[in-house]
UniProtKB/TrEMBL annotation, chain A:
<dbReference type="GO" id="GO:0055085">
    <property type="term" value="P:transmembrane transport"/>
</dbReference>
<keyword id="KW-1003">Cell membrane</keyword>
<feature type="transmembrane region" description="Helical">
    <location>
        <begin position="140"/>
        <end position="160"/>
    </location>
</feature>
<protein>
    <submittedName>
        <fullName>ABC transporter permease</fullName>
    </submittedName>
</protein>
<keyword id="KW-0813">Transport</keyword>
<dbReference type="InterPro" id="IPR035906">
    <property type="entry name" value="MetI-like_sf"/>
</dbReference>
<feature type="domain" description="ABC transmembrane type-1">
    <location>
        <begin position="103"/>
        <end position="317"/>
    </location>
</feature>
<dbReference type="Pfam" id="PF00528">
    <property type="entry name" value="BPD_transp_1"/>
</dbReference>
<comment type="similarity">
    <text>Belongs to the binding-protein-dependent transport system permease family.</text>
</comment>
<dbReference type="InterPro" id="IPR051393">
    <property type="entry name" value="ABC_transporter_permease"/>
</dbReference>
<feature type="transmembrane region" description="Helical">
    <location>
        <begin position="35"/>
        <end position="63"/>
    </location>
</feature>
<feature type="transmembrane region" description="Helical">
    <location>
        <begin position="244"/>
        <end position="261"/>
    </location>
</feature>
<dbReference type="GO" id="GO:0005886">
    <property type="term" value="C:plasma membrane"/>
</dbReference>
<dbReference type="InterPro" id="IPR000515">
    <property type="entry name" value="MetI-like"/>
</dbReference>
<feature type="region of interest" description="Disordered">
    <location>
        <begin position="1"/>
        <end position="26"/>
    </location>
</feature>
<feature type="transmembrane region" description="Helical">
    <location>
        <begin position="103"/>
        <end position="128"/>
    </location>
</feature>
<feature type="transmembrane region" description="Helical">
    <location>
        <begin position="192"/>
        <end position="215"/>
    </location>
</feature>
């Protein structure tokens, strides 16, 4: 690779059309090399300040005994070696046990939520691929959960899930008579279901949006050819639409996975500072164990473990899906 | 068989009844699911407090607009509103400007480290917010102690944080948009004597307005809806809506009708903006994300 930062294409063309002034071209060369870096500088600096430097500090803090006494100057906190980590992964002790419980809950929640979001998004996008009356209106309507601010939407769901004055119990208990007494939704085991419903409601429009965009890239001619060969609509969906969506799905599922796994806002607004055990998602769990005990060292160790897990999963996922794609191309 | 309309994307064959009925049933149920909370929000915001404290009623009996006046009294909602507006507005403007420059560099130049840059910036999206919440909190507190610049608890700190949240995705989307603007256009502008920045602002930016609008909407929504950092990084005077809305629950009473009214009021700016501009966002995603 050369160092010259020439514009990708068109450079030669531009040279041909302006034959004069070789000197300005040479002196402009240095400027041209540094120009892209100058343009990137603000973005780079900010990403460094808010994401990368904190991450490095977070890793350092995870090896320290950082309690509230050292917050004013975290560098003076005593080193703790691997103590924070051994505390976090000691699954027989309360701290480790709670973390493991939260991790398993989060995994189960993420698989279910991502699966349902994809299913609803894909079904809606495929059903709406062909135009019909009211399609534009429906599409706008379906994007409402995505557009609503998280706290406004989730707080409404929290109201609906109230035991005594919520809509859900009014339907389930009063109108349908499915339960003997109105159940709690935001405490106890039911809270997992409540969280899942809210998460799917909020998350599926994004899958819908992306899949809809992906569908627009499938050439019409393929469908026409299939129709000439006698393939029905259902067959076209199975044989053409779904396979064509593969590359879109690869990215979409990964993004949905990361967002859902890291979701903090939904459980935080739905349950408040402390989530019930059945719906104790990992982000909220770490937040709570850091800011209630003011022990940042252990919280950071948990965060680092979480990051490692996400990196491994992402790496394996990308490896598996790209290999699968190559194999199917061959 | 000719298609009925130009926009019809699929199946020149007439769809069978099974498909049409599945579609009707599925989309109706889905619309119901989507609308349910919206209906609850609107109807409950018009009920008196006794009605939202007792059994839920599908059809409100005593309609009142009182909650819409009370919300401004119960908590300083106007202040929160103003804080959110300043923070989200400033974060959007900065984020879009910075993203335009970065996307221009990536789209129009080859340089060493280009791939590293795009991959690094995008991968910051995958980090859990909780991972850098604690260190960022420490950094802001320490910067404040050392230099006297109050980032912790201030709007500036929140703006700085939020603008980096939307930055990666904005850059990514704008690269796609800029790539779709023909290079001949900015080459021609350069031949006519425009510098690289002239070409950017006179040719590329005007041609990519839909993409820039989409990115701005996205950045604004991100900042307007964020909860985690807002709950840690703000104090009484800089509190944003995301945290302020919790003020309607007191020890004794939860003013659900006011919560619903306030939720509706704070949602209106973003929902209206989003629905008006969603067409741009969809094309933006097509250009940027799905390649």
């Amino acid at each position: 690779m050369t160092l010259t930062a020439a514009p990708d294409t068109g450079e030669r063309k531009a040279r041909k059309s302006s034959p004069g002034a070789p000197r300005t071209r040479r002196s402009g060369r240095l400027r041209r090399i540094s120009l892209p870096y100058l343009l990137l500088l603000p973005a780079l600096l900010l990403e460094l300040l808010v994401h990368l430097v904190p991450m490095v500090i977070g890793i350092a803090v995870s090896f320290k005994e950082l309690t509230q006494f050292y917050i004013r100057d975290w560098t003076t906190a005593p080193w703790a070696g691997l103590d924070n980590y051994s505390l976090a992964v000691d699954f027989d002790a309360p701290v480790g046990e709670a973390l493991l419980n939260s991790f398993i809950t989060t995994c189960l929640f993420t698989v279910l939520s991502v699966g349902l979001c994809w299913l609803l998004g894909a079904a809606a996008a495929i059903f709406m691929q062909e135009s019909f009356r009211g399609r534009g209106f429906l599409r706008t309507l379906f994007l409402v959960p995505y557009a609503l601010p998280v706290y406004a939407a989730v707080i409404t769901w929290a109201f609906m899930f109230q035991r005594d004055n919520g809509l859900i119990n009014h339907v389930v208990h009063d109108q349908l008579g499915l339960t003997d007494s109105p159940p709690f939704w935001l405490i106890g085991d039911n809270s997992f279901v409540a969280l899942l419903v809210v998460s799917v409601w909020k998350g599926w429009p994004f899958a819908f949006l992306i899949i809809m965009a992906g569908l627009q890239n499938i050439p019409r001619e393929i469908y026409e050819a299939a129709a000439l060969d006698g393939a029905g609509v259902w067959q076209q969906v199975r044989r053409i639409t779904l396979p064509s969506l593969r590359p879109v799905n690869q990215v979409l599922v990964l993004v949905l996975f990361l967002w859902t796994f890291n979701d903090f806002n939904t459980p935080f607004v739905l349950f408040g500072e402390a989530a019930p055990e059945a719906a104790d998602l990992i982000s909220l769990h770490i937040y709570q164990s850091s800011f209630q005990t003011w022990n940042f060292g252990t919280g950071s160790a948990m965060s680092v473990l979480l990051l490692l897990f996400l990196l491994v999963v992402t790496g394996v996922y990308l490896l598996l899906t790209s290999r699968g794609r190559k194999a199917s191309d061959a | 068989m000719p298609s009925q309309s130009r926009r019809q994307a699929r199946s020149p064959m007439a769809a069978p009844q099974s498909f049409l009925w599945s579609r009707r049933i599925f989309l109706t149920l889905l619309a119901g699911f989507v609308l349910l909370p919206v209906y609850v929000m609107i109807s409950s915001s018009l009920k008196p407090l006794e009605d939202v404290s007792g059994k839920f009623q599908w059809i409100p009996t005593g309609l009142t607009v009182r909650p819409y006046f009370d919300i401004w009294e119960t908590v300083p909602l106007a202040d929160y509103f103003m804080n959110s507006l300043i923070v989200a507005g400033a974060a959007t403007v900065c984020s879009v400007t910075i993203a335009v420059f970065a996307a221009y560099a990536v789209s129009r130049y080859t340089f060493r480290g280009k791939r590293v840059f795009t991959v690094t910036v995008l991968s910051t999206q995958m980090f859990p917010g909780i991972l850098f919440l604690l260190p960022l909190f420490l950094i802001y507190v320490n910067i404040g102690n050392v230099t006297g610049i109050a980032l912790f608890g201030s709007r500036a700190g929140l703006i700085l944080t939020y603008l980096t949240f939307s930055l990666p995705f904005s850059i990514w989307m704008l690269i796609g948009y800029f790539d779709s603007v023909p290079r001949d256009l900015d080459e021609a502008a350069k031949v006519d004597g425009c510098g690289p920045l002239g070409a950017l602002f006179r040719v590329i930016v005007p041609a990519a307005v839909p993409g820039i609008v989409a990115v701005a909407v996205y950045a604004f929504m991100t900042a307007w809806g964020e909860v985690l950092f807002a709950s840690v990084m703000t104090n009484d005077t800089t509190r944003t809506l995301a945290v302020g809305l919790q003020g309607y629950s007191t020890q004794n009473d939860v003013y659900w009708n006011q919560i619903m009214a306030a939720s509706l009021v704070v949602s209106l700016p973003v929902v209206a903006g989003f629905l008006l501009l969603q067409r741009y966002l969809v094309t933006g995603l097509t250009a940027g994300a799905v390649k």
